[in-house]
Structures are given as C-alpha cells and as structure tokens.
Amino acid sequence: MCADPPGGEAEPLGRTEDAHVAARSYEIRIRGHVPPEELEEVENLRATVEPAETVLRGCVPDQAALHGILTRLHSLGLELLEVRRVPASDELRREG
After folding, report:
1. Degrees (nearest 5) of the Cα angle 59, 64, 66?
2. Which band of pLDDT confidence, cut at 50, 70 and 90, is reported for residue 23?
3. What is the pLDDT of residues 56-67, one digit of tens each?
4. Residues 12, 84 contacting (CB under 8 angstroms)
5. Mean confidence (pLDDT) of the chain
6. What does the DSSP 8-state code read for residue 9?
7. Structure pTM?
8. CA–CA–CA angle 69, 72, 73 (5° rounding)
9. What is the DSSP code (8-state) at residue 33?
C-alpha cells in the first residue's frame, strides 16, 4: 500500500530526504490525449483524460520504477507537464 508523504500534502518530486522510499502514490500529467494502447506497459497507473491532458495516477513501488515510467513516456515522445507525489488518501478517494 502507498504511504502518505509527511504532512499528508502533495509534494513536488525530488523533495524527499530518502531516495529509497516505500511505495508512493503519484500523479503524472501529460499534454494531450494519449491513446490507451500507448500506456499498456505502464503498470499500476490508471489513465484519465481531462481537458487537453492525460493524467496517470497510481502507486509506484520505488524510485527506479518511477524512472522507468518516465523513460517509457519519453520514448513515446510525450510531453510531461507535471509529476508529483500525492497523499495515498487522495488516491483511495479517487478509486471509491
């Protein structure tokens, strides 16, 4: 299960004291609509389409997995707008 960052608030990527943290919940925003078949290899993240962007949300087990996801998105030529860690409690509310 993903753990909340200290304070329970969204936290910009890179502001963690320990790079080897437990699984965390992330939100990744990508410019434009990304077809679902392009995201099939991105595990543990759900895609939703919002006006002018695709949003991936879910639990990422560690920093290596996050880097793998970002590398995959880059290889697809997608433009990242934002990557942020979100409280796991927010992720649970979205699933409900």
Report:
1. 40
2. confident
3. 999 999 999 999
4. yes
5. 79
6. S
7. 0.71
8. 90
9. P
